[in-house]
Structure to design on (245 residues):
């Protein structure tokens, strides 16, 4: 069994989704080909999940396919139904808007388009899927509360051993994490005895009405399974892989 899994540039559910990706690989031994949009790759790096993804994709092959690349040969594999299922998770509101309006100009939207044309089932987890309270719970990447540093001025986190990739810079006399360099390893959290360095803090967001309407339109597309949580994503993918949906 082969799975095409596309990650877009959303932090909501990302770390949990990757954990379930690992679980699916372990339990089904499916070959998982991982595709990224440009920002999907960047967000996966910042959230510290690239290494897990590489291990999962090792059973098939690993490709970093970015928006704008020419000759994206995976379309032929979809047309020949080499994949049992396509997964787009997490799927940003931008990706879903393109899909429901028939635009296929990114890796994620092009994969969706070709999967539907080839009658390959697609499972989508929108980043803007609200919970029972009507909000989306997302996570922040690592950051430094500079208000705490303003009083402590300890300098521990800017020491060389505090960050293996030297992502912590001094800006205007205070430390700041350069997300263009950060790999989300979390080492810096343990270097700060004052709790100024924070990773994966929960934040509640309220989806826009237009994003909710697009999710409803997505649900109406044939062979498309829209799920509301990483756990439901896991169960749906396993059912399709084993049940031949």
């Amino acid at each position: 069994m082969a799975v095409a899994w596309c990650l877009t540039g959303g932090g909501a559910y990302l770390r949990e989704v990757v954990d379930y990706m690992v679980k699916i690989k372990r339990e089904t031994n499916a070959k998982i080909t991982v595709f990224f949009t440009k920002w999907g790759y960047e967000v996966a790096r910042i959230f510290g999940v690239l290494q897990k993804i590489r291990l999962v994709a090792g059973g098939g092959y690993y490709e970093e396919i970015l928006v704008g690349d020419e000759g994206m040969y995976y379309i032929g594999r979809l047309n020949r139904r080499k994949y049992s299922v396509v997964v787009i998770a997490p799927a940003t509101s931008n990706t879903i808007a393109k899909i429901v309006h028939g635009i296929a100009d990114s890796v994620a939207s092009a994969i969706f388009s070709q999967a539907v044309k080839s009658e390959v089932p697609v499972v989508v987890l929108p980043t803007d899927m609200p919970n029972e309270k009507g909000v989306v719970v997302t996570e922040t990447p690592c950051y430094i509360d500079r208000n705490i540093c303003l009083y402590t001025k300890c300098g521990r986190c800017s020491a060389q051993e505090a960050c293996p990739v030297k992502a912590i810079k001094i800006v205007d006399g205070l430390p700041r994490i350069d997300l263009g360099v950060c790999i989300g390893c979390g080492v810096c959290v343990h270097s700060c005895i004052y709790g100024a360095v924070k990773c994966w803090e929960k934040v509640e967001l309220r989806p826009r009405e237009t994003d909710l309407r697009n999710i409803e339109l997505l649900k109406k597309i044939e062979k498309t399974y829209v799920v509301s949580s990483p756990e439901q994503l896991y169960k749906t993918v396993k059912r399709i892989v084993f049940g031949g949906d």
Remarks:
- The CA atoms of residues 67 and 105 lie 8 Å apart.
- The first helix runs from residue 14 to 28.
- DSSP finds ten helices and eleven strands in the chain.
- Residues 59-71 have pLDDT under 50 and may be disordered.
